[in-house]
Design goal:
The chain is α+β, with helices and mostly antiparallel strands. It is built from 11 helices and 27 strands. The strands form 10 sheets. A 4-stranded antiparallel sheet has the order 13-21-20-14. It has a 3-stranded mixed sheet with strand order 2-1-6, with helices on one face. Strands 4-3-11 form a 3-stranded mixed sheet, covered by helices on one side. Strand 20 and strand 21 form a beta hairpin.
Length: 459
């Protein structure tokens, strides 16, 4: 064959190859206004002839129409049910349209061809960008949270029955965890109603049933006793003391843990088992619900003080208490004024508190007497009280009534020396300030107080 014939054949071959390439590009690139065949959107493969906006509308509608059912943690009760649209879910439709429109339509012809072929091989997938606001879920769960969420309850020792009162696990409910669980389940459950159990955080207390059952209570670390009236007008006070003592009795103080008297005893209310009795409020004696509770707190504080426990928070009364040594009292008022104690020892300490027939006694028990405590209190300042006059129209002329005796204010310096069994010594110096208690007199209108009343003490 001659060179001319060969040249014509080469030209023919090149022309055929070019025509074939044009045909390949034309038949394998993505037509304008269509989605590349084979793109996987939310797990489904796109077929030929699909428009980006139409396809996006169908995908968005399918997502927002999915039903969700939120069950309680046991899976028995439906807490919430509806579509994602009902719950306020939104989808970024415009972004999906843009992404669908881009596949096989960007770059030069060879880049478009390569991307179209990757789509046909199922190598290009897309996920919806969607949001589920927490508002609707929170609105439903807040009442459930309020009714079912609670702190863990430590096991206690029941001295009367000589057995353990079992602990209770706490439950914490976070509505945002439920929102996250719904979102995750929508992604992992491809079809049908999305069923989710409400996630909860189970919290186990430090003093579990097994731990308390094994606690050594054989040694008395310290004890303290006070007395009170329990008959006649003192019946309410006696009832309150017994109720407050029950709130701390059997408590097992774990090493390093801090315990709140107010948390253990709870609100001083009729619903919580308290009654009316005399109490000191702003330096004056009055009737109030829970009067007498401070005597339990004071007796517990004194026992803790002499056992070497850490006194984290404590406030003295507005005046010295007749039932306990000065500087050893502790006033409490729910929920603001509290007594908080910490167990510094490497073993649990058990509280045995009893209020019965005029005797309030607290014993602190453990495996060993870990410390000896010396205590000294001295008065470092005295402040004179003032007199308050109240006029009463019901009083006869010449009559005088003293409602309250005045008491001088005192500043007490206390020194607690703790001698630990291992040879260590710790000294604590603190001051208690008892403000003066005003003397209160009732006089009839117009009476001259200078003539009717004795002079205030001097000094």
């Amino acid at each position: 064959m001659g060179w001319a014939a060969r040249g014509l054949s080469v030209v023919g071959l090149l022309g055929g190859a070019y025509a074939g390439a044009r045909h390949h590009v034309r038949t394998h690139t993505v037509p304008d206004g269509q989605v590349a065949v084979g793109v996987v959107v939310e797990g489904e493969t796109v077929g030929p002839g699909q428009r980006p906006d139409v396809l996006a509308d169908a995908v968005v509608e399918r997502r927002l129409s999915r039903r969700v059912r939120l069950l309680d943690p046991d899976g028995k009760t439906t807490l919430l049910e509806g579509t994602l649209r009902d719950l306020g879910a939104t989808v970024d439709r415009e972004l999906l349209v843009t992404e669908l429109s881009a596949v096989g339509h960007r770059g030069d012809v060879w880049q478009r061809l390569e991307e179209a072929e990757r789509a046909q091989r199922g190598e290009i997938g897309m996920k919806l960008r969607w949001q589920l606001p927490a508002a609707a879920v929170i609105d439903v769960l807040l009442p459930y949270k309020e009714a079912h969420e609670h702190d863990p309850v430590d096991a206690r020792w029941d001295f009367a029955a000589d057995r353990v009162v079992p602990h209770e696990d706490g439950i914490r409910i976070d509505p945002y965890d439920a929102v996250a669980a719904i979102r995750a389940s929508v992604e992992t459950q491809p079809e049908g109603t999305v069923v989710v159990r409400l996630p909860v955080d189970i919290r186990v207390p430090a003093a579990t049933t097994d731990i308390v059952a094994a606690v050594d209570r054989s040694v008395v670390l310290a004890e303290y006793e006070t007395v009170y009236g329990y008959v006649g007008s003192q019946v309410g006070r006696a009832k309150n003391i017994a109720r407050a003592a029950a709130g701390v009795n059997g408590l097992v103080m774990m090493p390093g843990a801090v315990y709140s008297f107010n948390h253990l005893v709870g609100p001083r209310s009729v619903e919580n088992g308290f009654d009316k009795a005399g109490e000191i409020y702003k330096g004056e004696l009055r009737m109030g619900i829970g009067g007498g509770t401070c005597q339990v707190a004071s007796t517990l504080h004194a026992a803790a003080y002499f056992s070497g426990l850490d006194v984290v928070q404590r406030a003295p009364h507005s005046r010295p208490s007749g039932y306990i040594g000065i500087g050893l009292d502790a006033t409490v008022a729910y929920p603001t004024v509290d007594l908080k104690l910490r167990n510094p020892y490497p073993f649990p300490v058990v509280v045995h508190a009893q209020g019965d027939k005029g005797r309030m006694k607290v014993q602190l028990l453990g495996q060993q007497k870990a410390a000896e405590v010396d205590h000294h209190a001295s008065t470092v300042a005295v402040k004179m009280y003032k007199r308050k006059i109240r006029r009463s129209p019901w009083m006869e002329e010449g009559k005088v009534f003293r409602k309250q005796k005045g008491r001088k204010g005192l500043t007490i310096e206390k020194v607690r020396t703790i001698k630990f069994a291992d040879g260590g010594v710790k000294e604590e110096r603190t001051r208690d300030v008892y403000p003066p208690t005003n003397e209160i007199y009732y006089l009839p209108p117009g009476a001259d107080e200078d003539e009717a009343l004795p002079p205030l003490p001097s000094g």
